[in-house]
Amino acid sequence: MEICRGSQCLNVELVAYSLPREGGVDKLIAESAAISHAPEFRTLNDERVKHLVNLLKKLGHESVFEHACFTFRVEGISRVCSHQLVRHRLASYTQQSQRYVSLKNPKFIVPESIFGSEFEEEYMDVLERAATLYRKMVETKKIRKEDARFILPQGIETKIIITMNARELRHFIELRCDPSAQWEIRTMAKEMLKLAHEKAPILFEDLYEKFILDKSDQQL
Fold first, then answer.
1. Which pLDDT belongs to residue 40?
2. Catalytic residue from among 149, 167, 170, 176
3. 176 flagged as catalytic
4. Could you give the C-alpha distances from 86 to 15, 83, 91, 115, 208, in angstroms and in order?
5. How many CB atoms lie within 10 A of CB 96?
6. pLDDT, tens digit, for every residue of 21-40?
7. 11-73+158-213 CATH choice from 3.30.365.10, 3.40.30.10, 3.40.50.720, 3.30.1360.170
8. Percent of the chain beyond pLDDT 70?
């Protein structure tokens, strides 16, 4: 088996996002807002785009944010983390199947708090025993993978594809980057925020400043 210490194995990639014919995500959002009020919405300059997107955030008129979508590929998180993630229902998910994928050489996410504690040795022993029993059941072919997986701890590593529209992504980030959020999903959410901010710096500017630039934001 392989052990990942905390978020050591976390990898978040932005694999797709809404790309308009002209301009970027911020312009798409601004044009979507302007079309309902302005006689001409195709000729918005950069200053007007920034003004409109910031105004929408200020007024809470976020329905137009749903016209932009972001797709992330995430690896190196535990099932503990993915169980929290899929509670966000306005999103699409495709997760690695434990029914079809063999996990004979599993990777486990282990919280930092375990290392150096009085429970570390016993904790690692339980993981090793679970992995060994799973491997025995699968290799003898007497137990199907879909049943053998029941022995695997929630800390086992998983991979998942996530697609969210920009409105839901902002909501997800607001909740999961908060200091009160669990450490693993909080780390993942911050990586998603950084990637989204690169493609839509105006739309995600407030959240980027709040959760990435503000160093006073410490995890509880």
1. 62
2. 176
3. yes
4. 19, 6, 8, 28, 23
5. 16
6. 888 999 999 989 888 776 66
7. 3.30.1360.170
8. 95
